[in-house]
Amino acid sequence: MRLEKVKILGIVYKILYHHELKGDKNELLNGRIDYDKAEILIKNDLESQNILNVIYHEAVHGLSTAMGIDLSEKQVETISNGLLCLVRDNPELFDLRGLEGGLK
Ligand SMILES: [Zn+2]
Known about the structure:
The protein is an alpha+beta fold.
């Protein structure tokens, strides 16, 4: 199953999978986020594990921009890796359905 969208602070980003992705300097990329079009672009032949890493990475870029905190590439990398580990180790922490307002 592939994710088709992710909501980042109220903005829904479409996740699109492409055969080849290039950055502004024509460099090959595994992913990129387009704020104007509200799209996250992912290289489509990555292993599913790496696709998830790239989606988290681009989502943290999206958070950084939306919150105006201007994280560096290294900070985005570190936080997205840590966040993915946290979610993996504690899925119940991130499934808030039925929990909010009920934690006592
Ligand atoms: Zn990045």
